[in-house]
Batch of 2 targets.
Target 1
Amino acid sequence: MKVRFVTSNEHKFQEVKRMLSRVAEVIWVNIEYPEVQAASLEEVATFSARWLEDKVERPFFLEDSGLFIEALNGFPGPFSSYVFRTIGNEGILKLMQGVSHRRATFKSVIALMDRELHLFVGSSPGEIAEEIRGGGWGFDPIFIPDGSNGLTFGELGERKDEFSHRGRSVRELLNYLVRRNS
Ligand code: IMP
């Protein structure tokens, strides 16, 4: 089956494509769409999917993600993309300087527009690193998921999928697609 993934982020596209390749051909729709400033990723993803519903052939999906840092009361959360563009990893590490409670959660919400709208959610609990480590993209070099023996997403390479928020939301989507087509 074919399913369209609407994103302007090639890193996200590559991650999702490799995880879904067993069950679906993922077609990249590289267009921008408006993201409302809302309190939850679910609201942001739902608004975007509704906005795209008469512009993109179904089934299609999009994904919205964010990093929620406990010591910063969940900041940057739904504002992660803006915060990454403005203060970046260095800025986050500065905000966390001298803070010993470094727990954080990466969250991913996939909104799939099939006949109806479906949401698939994945979370990855972990910690903010003390320094930038490894490659990857976005916040990858400063996020250490639980269970990775202290390695950041950036140091895990493709093993990131086992631990990541997106790995978990995509596995939910994959289960749905398998059931749908059986
Ligand atoms: P978006 O709004 O879903 O595009 O993502 C919000 C921001 O979170 C992005 O700009 C990235 O900087 C960051 N982000 C989301 N997912 C990841 C990830 O898997 N690794 C690193 N950064 C991520």
Target 2
Amino acid sequence: MNLGLQNKIALVAGASKGLGKAVALGLAREGASVAIVARDHARVESAAQDIRDATGAQALAITADVTRREDIQRAVDETIKQFGAIHILITNAGGPPPGQFVALTEEQWQAAVNLTLMSAVRMSAAVVPLMQKQKWGRIIHITSASVKHPIDNLMLSNSIRSAVIGLGKTQATELAKDGILVNSVCPGWTETERVGELMADRATRAKTDARTQFAAIENQIPMGRMGKPEEFANVVVFLASECASYVNGITLPIDGGFTRTAF
Ligand code: NAP
């Protein structure tokens, strides 16, 4: 299958490591040029170099914080300056902090809305007019399996990511006439560095080892293991491609069957 991603230009947020980096790498492997965004300058530069080395594709590193509107506009401007267009937008960032309802403050709610919802809103707002002009676009919002299957102690993620699903679904309805397709993907447990740190932290608190913590999660996944970042990325790359030309407005778990909902 020719995915038709040669000569496409992608802006991938939260992409110096983990899921975002895997997606950027996957797009670059298919011939797309990628602009990757993260806050840590050295790390995002090194990730761009990794992508160039692995694929020979063009990769631009942009040091920016997606909680800041001006940073988002600069990331879009730098991408346009370097590559001349943006065909694919992947919205993504770190997750909001854990916590139960009674422990969360108004400030934490506001910060999480800014990080998780408003980053997707602002990135879309900066890119959609460009996509409308070129009559072609793909927007993919990275959310979480928690939108289908709320996860204990993740009140902010469970609540605010659902708003991103509403955003994407409504964008899909409004923007299809302009050739812009919008979908949301919901990663389940995927073995990124962050998840490794999370399991190590749980192990310390439970006075056990990380392997035991991994096993406790893997027991809940029908496939008996966590996903790999590249398994997640493969699906996103397909959705970003010419081949996904009739896929619009979906909310797709990529979770090895973890989500038990029928729809
Ligand atoms: P990760 O390994 O921590 O990577 C997050 C990436 O986003 C990093 O490149 C980070 O770099 C960047 N980032 C974080 N905050 C940012 C900001 N404000 N502005 C710009 N870039 C930012 O996380 P991950 O495991 O890939 O997960 C990605 C997203 O999927 C998260 O929201 C996570 O909660 C969600 N998710 C992950 C899983 C999983 O199992 N991995 C499951 C469900 C949902 P800097 O820190 O340098 O900015």
